[in-house]
Amino acid sequence: xxxxxxxxxxxxxxxxxxxxxxxxxxxxxxxxxxxxxxxxxxxxxxxxxxxxxxxxxxxxxxxxxxxxxxxxxxxxxxxxxxxxxxxxxxxxxxxxxxxxxxxxxxxxxxxxxxxxxxxxxxxxxxxxxxxxxxxxxxxxxxxxxxxxxxxxxxxxxxxxxxxxxxxxxxxxxxxxxxxxxxxxxxxxxxxxxxxxxxxxxxxxxxxxxxxxxxxxxxxxxxxxxxxxxxxxxxxxxxxxxxxxxxxxxxxxxxxxxxxxxxxxxxxxxxxxxxxxxxxxxxxxxxxxxxxxxxxxxxxxxxxxxxxxxxxxxxxxxxxxxxxxxxxxxxxxxxxxxxxxxxxxxxxxxxxxxxxxxxxxxxxxxxxxxxxxxxxxxxxxxxxxxxxxxxxxxxxxxxxxxxxxxxxxxxxxxxxxxxxxxxxxxxxxxxxxxxxxxxxxxxxxxxxxxxxxxxxxxxxxxxxxxxxxxxxxxxxxxxxxxxxxxxxxxxxxxxxxxxxxxxxxxxxxxxxxxxx
Length: 515
Ligand code: ATP
Ligand code: MG
Hints:
This protein is of the alpha/beta class and 515 residues long. It folds into three domains: 34-99, Elongation Factor Tu (Ef-tu), domain 3 (Beta Barrel), CATH 2.40.30; 102-376, P-loop containing nucleotide triphosphate hydrolases (Rossmann fold, 3-Layer(aba) Sandwich), CATH 3.40.50; 382-511, ATP synthase alpha/beta chain, C-terminal domain (Lysin, Up-down Bundle), CATH 1.20.150. 39% of the residues lie in helices and 18% in strands. It is built from 16 helices and 18 strands. Strand 3 and strand 4 form a beta hairpin. The longest helix has 20 residues, at 488-507. The radius of gyration is 29 Å and the shape is elongated. It starts with 5 loop residues before the first helix and ends in an 8-residue tail after the last helix. The structure holds adenosine-5'-triphosphate and magnesium ion (MG).
């Protein structure tokens, strides 16, 4: 087939080859190569590579990547981001002259990825428009606006007593198995009626626990507005180490485009432990509780990135719900005190309350929200004002009156009210309440509607109130939801509806649905 062209074609081909050859650089080339000295526990110690900078990516000839974590005179301590299989002494290493970057963009929504943005859900590779470094500076003070809008969590005890604002960082802290993850998942699920984008970062969690979270959100929430960044306990320590920062970068994409995002980091105690492990293996000097000295900086820098941006920058927000685990309720251990001082408040979960079935097991004495209270909608703020004091007084009174009967009428009524408050604040999982439902229940409480009811009816009321209000008072529901305010007449009407519902539930136990 080529014969007819061969005359001029052969000439052209020769010329082209010559051109090509002249462009090839055949002079000597120097390449900086490092070599692995030893490798263990997710760390490789590399000699050579004098030009590598801190946090630079390293490429191992066996295909893995690593991250320069410490630079010493005699070598580099590199954290491996992949399975170390195949890496051994003398494996060749090159510096890549760039830092770790992750893909960002709306293409990540609905996906389960590892901290480098590689899919874990069996789906196709994620092709986003761009990448961003995982370490980015936090917005300066001048670039921030006041925290003004609420994050509606749907959990009554949080919304009424420890309200969260968009741009706030609120710590969830508690012992093992006290419902920390469940609380955060409820908050994420409740965003199915809002515009919030949720990023769930799992660090060092069991795979089953992570699967449960993803399943719960897929089943009940808005998974198409969620990103799951997963570094399970089985992932290389390097991946667990970068996971929170990677999640932040993915969430910041939306914050910087004027949208609202929420990041849950589950949990930072595991992250701190991984940091300590890697730092000690890299022979960094141990400090308090053997954590290296920069652990405070690491977490402070990470959480500073949550912010409500000024209107000139689009007015987007990134709220953070970091989770940490305490040991026997010890809030004064190193990592909890650090994080309590970094964040704008904490929700403390107590194992005794949890065991007594008061769930979510929020300790109202130790919990606090330092900025969110101002973001509460007026309708809710109005009715939740006295709640905290009433409840705190009740808890104290209850302790004193545990052993003896009490005859004082005033005290008795306080105890009655307190028991109703507790029954209201006890809320099962996946049963979040809208703001208007919360308002209705709290108005009814303060009007004394609940005082005559047996305590078990209160739980039923909470479960039914949403449907009942939609059926009977759709006008008030939509006006309160839209304006965030409520008139006195509407308040009374809501209290009346709660009373009606209560008498219906009370008169026909177990048949409420068929009325
Ligand atoms: P871990 O320390 O293992 O991470 P955790 O503190 O995250 O635990 P969860 O896994 O969220 O705790 O919850 C522990 C158990 O408590 C789960 O079985 C969950 O279903 C139950 N639970 C959590 N919150 C509630 C609630 N509000 N009502 C009823 N059960 C709950
Ligand atoms: Mg958990």
